[in-house]
Write a structure and sequence with these properties.
The structure holds two protein chains of two kinds.
Chain A: H1 2-7, H2 14-17, H3 24-44, H4 53-64, H5 84-112, H6 122-140, H7 143-154, H8 158-182, H9 187-194, H10 199-233, H11 241-250, H12 254-282
Helix pairs in contact in A: 4-12, 5-8, 5-10, 5-12, 6-8, 7-8, 8-10, 9-10, 10-12, 11-12
Chain B: E1 5-13, E2 19-28, E3 33-37, H1 44-51, E4 59-64, E5 67-68, H2 74-82, E6 84-87, H3 99-105, H4 113-118, H5 123-135, H6 151-163, E7 169-172, H7 181-197, E8 201-205, H8 209-215, E9 218-223, E10 226-231, H9 238-245, H10 266-276, H11 278-285
Helix pairs in contact in B: 3-6, 5-6, 6-7
The chains are: A mainly alpha, B alpha/beta.
Chain lengths: 283, 286
């Protein structure tokens, strides 16, 4: 095959010069991957001797033997909102409120963090840079860590959970929104600028109509993610059903924990389904 | 008497060093239909955009009815832009918005930012929008989404939007480069009509010399950012043509002028019907 190229004075394609089985590059890549994995396993010192299948078996069974009493108030001091169902609803709203707060802040910030909006003068370019750094910083701290920090400020409970979740999400939504703004067709803004419109009017008439759908889509995606995250926040002091779950696990009340986990799974699955359906319709 | 539009020693050097305009000087008189020709990259688009400052010139002056466009900013610049309409090769309509909303947007320069958000369009603006839609012959499409229209129709929406500014000058950047020959003529005729009826001066860049010969009262050819020819369309002979477009170029005719696109052949009609049949798409989705 290579003669075809040699006879015509053309460079021989590398695919013809190498056979896959003897190519040293391929083998060295495979070797390097295996070596890294070996080092990793040795460093981790994975120890299976502490595993106790008999004990685990009894616990898994008690996870499935749900204690249904936690679904109803147990004494005169408890209301519906102290039951697992009530706490689950509260936790869903924890995610909803956090998403709403983050949308309110991310929306205006996203325009400041979009390069195609912030052009023309050095001040605008500087604001763009600050907004982008802000998004990156807010996004790079994991939600659980943010909630731990916020629980120091606000004390244990829903406040730390809501504000921590919102803080992280301003970074995520700000980045997603501003990238949607940067991805618009530059033609319409150019045309509206040419009509003598102000910068604000250009955004209103030519940018906003182009980003409504991606914005709604991203917001629903984050709402979905936040409702999924909300139950975990209680583990680090963020309030909601997570706090209750953490308590039951620490008290070895696996009959209660199992039912709470089941409630969370149902909620997350329903949220996942609804969000996918809505977003599919928007595209 | 000062010229309607005076361009003096206009230079544009892009940040990467490309010299798009190399000391251009032109006088455009009121009522002219000027066609800019030249190869891609010869500076036609840059020249048009320097006139309304969509592109910032590096040096030189652009004097529009006695005001130096390169010296004004903010409100003054917007008020000059308001008097200069512009249409584009890619039409630059907001695709998701209605035709009517797109046309109405041409009036934004006359309204405050606050009123854009807080109040409904005025009776006069709505009436003007319908008047202009009727003028370009797409009144019945007023409430269709802009991207549901054909290319020629979209460009007519672009013209209607620019007319909302009640401009004295119309800039057209390759307005027919994305259109087929028959539609090209229909769009060019609307430009010719506003030039003759309203006395709007037109500066239009085109790829095809045959279109320039048909519509221009004056042809300006650009080559490497300089004026290579400036005169009557009839004065461009073969020698001049080769100067502008290079030795190897051959002048091509753009198709015959037709007022209406030709009817579709039976096969084309069937293919179109199949493509538009949404049920076909839905079945394949399942």
């Amino acid at each position: 095959m290579a003669e075809y190229f040699v006879a015509r004075g053309l460079p021989v394609p590398p695919e013809l010069r190498r056979t896959p089985l003897t190519d040293w590059r391929r083998w060295s890549l495979i070797g390097a991957t295996l070596a890294i994995l070996y080092i990793g396993v040795r460093l981790l010192d994975i120890d299976l001797s502490r595993a106790n299948p008999e004990y685990a078996g009894t616990r898994i069974i008690s996870l499935l033997q749900w204690d249904l009493r936690i679904l109803t108030p147990q004494n005169e001091f408890e209301t519906f909102w102290d039951t697992a169902g009530g706490l689950m609803i509260i936790t869903i709203f924890l995610g909803v409120v956090a998403t709403a707060i983050s949308i309110v802040f991310a929306l205006p910030l996203a325009f400041l963090g979009a390069r195609n909006i912030m052009t023309g003068n050095p001040v605008a370019a500087a604001i763009y840079g600050v907004a982008r750094v802000l998004f990156t910083v807010m996004r790079s701290i994991d939600v659980l860590i943010v909630v731990i920090i916020f629980s120091v400020i606000f004390g244990l409970g829903s406040a730390a959970g809501v504000f921590g979740l919102a803080f992280h999400n301003i970074g995520v939504l700000g980045k997603l929104y501003s990238e949607a703004i940067e991805g618009i067709d530059p033609g319409p803004p150019e045309a509206i600028t040419a009509t003598g419109a102000t910068r604000f009017q250009v955004v209103w008439a030519a940018v906003l109509p182009q980003i409504v759908n991606p914005f709604i889509s991203f917001s629903i995606y984050r709402l979905d993610a936040n409702v999924r995250l909300a139950p975990v926040l209680g583990f680090v002091g963020g309030g909601g059903i997570g706090q209750y779950l953490f308590q039951t696990i620490n008290l070895f009340q696996y009959n209660k924990a199992g039912l709470i986990i089941f409630l969370i799974v149902i909620t997350v699955a329903a949220m996942d389904f609804a969000s996918a359906q809505i977003r599919k319709r928007l595209v | 008497m000062p010229a309607f539009l005076e361009i003096r020693d206009l230079v544009k050097v892009y940040p990467r060093g490309a010299r798009a305009l190399d000391s251009i000087s032109l006088d455009i008189r009121k009522g002219e239909f000027v066609v800019l020709i030249g190869l891609s990259g010869s500076g036609k688009s840059t020249l048009l955009r320097c006139i309304n400052r969509l592109v910032e010139p590096t040096s030189g002056r652009v004097i529009f009815e006695g005001t130096d466009v390169t010296l004004v900013n903010g409100r003054d610049l917007r008020q000059i832009r308001r008097r200069i309409g512009m249409i584009f090769q890619q039409f630059n309509l907001v695709r998701r918005s209605s035709v009517f909303a797109n046309v109405l947007a041409g009036r934004l320069g006359y309204r405050s930012s606050w009123r854009t958000v807080a109040s409904r369009p005025s009776r006069e603006d709505v009436a003007l929008a319908f008047e202009n839609l009727e003028r370009v012959g797409i009144l019945e499409k007023a409430y269709a989404r802009a991207d549901a229209l054909s290319g020629g129709q979209q460009q007519r929406v672009g013209i209607a939007r620019a007319l909302m500014q009640q401009p004295q000058l119309m800039l057209a950047d390759e307005p027919v480069a994305s259109l087929d020959p028959a539609t090209s003529h229909s769009v060019m005729k609307y430009l010719e009509e506003i030039n003759k009826t309203d006395g709007i001066t037109v500066i239009c860049s085109l790829h095809f010399l045959s279109l320039a010969r048909r519509y221009a009262t004056r042809v300006i050819a650009l080559k490497d950012g300089k004026v290579a020819f400036d005169g009557k369309p009839a004065d461009i002979d073969e020698e001049r043509f080769k100067e502008i477009y290079g030795q190897e170029a051959i002048e091509v005719e753009i198709g015959p002028e037709r007022s209406r696109p030709q009817p579709l052949s039976a096969t084309e009609a069937a293919l179109l019907a199949l493509a538009q049949d949404t049920d076909v798409g839905r079945v394949s989705d399942r």
